[in-house]
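User: Predict the complex with N-(5'-phosphopyridoxyl)-D-alanine.
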Amino acid sequence: MSRIAYVNGSYVPHAQASVHIEDRGYQFSDGVYEVWAIQNSKLRDHQQHLTRLQRSLSELDIPFTHTNRSLNMILGEVIRRNRVRNGMVYLQITRGVAPRDHSWAKDIIPSIVVTAKSVDPAQAANRAKTGVSVITLADLRWKRRDIKSVSLLPNVLAKQSARDKGAFEAWLVDEEGFVTEGTSSNAWIITQDNVLVTRSVNSDILSGVTRLSLLELAKELQLKTEQRKFTIDEAKQAKEAFISSATTLAMPVVKIDKSVIGTGSPGMAAQRLREAYIAQGYV
Ligand code: PDD
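Assistant: Here is the predicted structure with N-(5'-phosphopyridoxyl)-D-alanine placed in the model:
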């Protein structure tokens, strides 16, 4: 079955989907994006992603030219046309097309692209059974990481370094030695005395939607949580570690650089949170 993308008002074959060469997303990475997990043909944490999208747009002064209702219809239609039951939907909004100039005219019409793809849940389940490894690298990003901008060059370079070293993700580390987050995920540890720790949100990290849902789930599961910074050393001595995102959900981490975490197998708390989060999507 051929994939279908939504581009500026039309549903087109994925292979032919394109935007103009003077789209400011292409020339300046002047745009934002969102990624939703699709579980059982439904968008996970739908409203929270929409709210974050609107905040990202507003922080960059890009107008939101849809109503929530019309955007929801487009997302639903792309999922339906691509027959995605489990997977992800990607939405990108850039400031639009204009003759190249760093500053912008206020009347540019934003470009909107939506794609969706299926992900094999069995593959993710297998990965979660063994756990993944992460490496640590200096966080070279700008100071507004709270905006889900398509400007991801430091993220992609760090992710590629991780993959080149056989690791799944890179944890980025600030100038004081504290972990900020992963290149496309939030970072978590569970201390030896069973406290779930993840960095508190401000402009240092993206406020992960999955992170928030997991914090709520942790409360329901009566797990003690703390939102604070942690160093690489603390992480390496943790009982458990994991990452969270719309694409990985809660994914156990069993190795950080050369240090094995806990027993070297996925920890109990991370697995419980992952199972509970998945189960919630089937209610
Ligand atoms: N990334 N931090 C960063 C830098 C991210 O890029 C992401 C998500 C997260 C987790 O956010 P959420 O739980 O809302 O997915 C944290 C998406 C999945 C991506 O870039 O593909």
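The two ends are 29 Å apart (CA to CA).
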